[in-house]
Amino acid sequence: MPADNQTPFRDNGSSHDAPAQSARQQWNWHPDLPIGNNPLFEWPWHMPTIWAYHRDTWLKLSEVSFVLILAIATFYLMQPVMPVDGDSGSMTWVGVLYGVNLGLVCAVAGGLHWFLYIHKGQGIERKYISAFGHKGGGRFSFGNQVHDNIFWTLVSGVGFWTFYQAIMLWRLNSGAASAIEWGDSPVLFSLIIFLTGPWIAFHFYWGHRFLHMGVVYKWVHALHHRNVNVGPWSGISMHPVEHAIYFSSVFIHLFIPSHPIHICFHMYMLGLSAIIGHSGFHSLFIGNKDRFALGHFHHQLHHRYFECNYGSVDFPLDRWFGTFHDGSQESFSRLKNNLKI
């Protein structure tokens, strides 16, 4: 359901109607179409493609490897202030944790916004929509898209993020949740990290479908969908109810053996990955070369067309349940027929 007076096939960053255009006309830039899912879920398996996909995800500097490095660093940074053996005495560590999360969000979202949108360090190269943000701010709090997004990100977003993260870290520390160390089982420890992305995608799909239901959309999710032309600060700019749902996937660690690194990695995949993925640019393109993958075109399609791509490419629920838009004209026509417009 579109926000405010938007139609699901009109991009507020341009004056063009999607049905009359080719994909190249609809977008300033887009990846090769049609887009696919994680090749691990494509049949028949093509092992070189599967290997290349996961090599680029885990063994090169990528969004995922970046947040994993941050999760490990946060674990060691927090050690001096964490309570010992379930001692809940001083809650200073929660304030430190909030400060770390706040700093990371400001560094990642603020840094990307400055370089891409203020400094315009690569112009519109690799930018999905050529316009920079929405003109006019009537639909936004404070009458400004960026100010609106910063407010909801920092006040509600980082608040829920830290609250849930602190609950899980405290339960691990107190022994109320099953803990695992690297030395106990390196394979299981690594497998939990590897499966975090698919679990987040599974949880996100169903929570996102719920948020698109009638009154829930109108009073909750529409706040996030004010952003058709997205930017870094829109990644976790959400209504508090949506934050409560979105970040709740971390509670899977109540039921599986986990380590604080798993908790931090999970929260950074939810928070920082959303910020990076909403950058509006496909990559940092410096020196005529893609240096670091940024935007999630799969989700960019959701922000334009609304009733598609509720999950992510990590887990193919959109394909299985008929809500997958691969960027092609065929997908557009199928979506249009499903919505009967």
From TrEMBL:
It comes from the Bacteria. Signal peptide: none annotated. The chain crosses the membrane at residues 57-78, 98-118, 149-167, 187-206. GO terms for cellular component: membrane. Keywords: Membrane, Oxidoreductase, Transmembrane, Transmembrane helix. Its EC number is 1.3.-.-. It is found in: Membrane. GO terms for molecular function: iron ion binding; oxidoreductase activity. Residues 200-323 form the Fatty acid hydroxylase domain. One of its GO terms (biological process) is lipid biosynthetic process. InterPro entries: Fatty_acid_hydroxylase, Sterol_Desaturase_Related. Residues 1-21 are annotated as: Disordered. This is Sterol desaturase. It comes from Puniceispirillum marinum (strain IMCC1322).
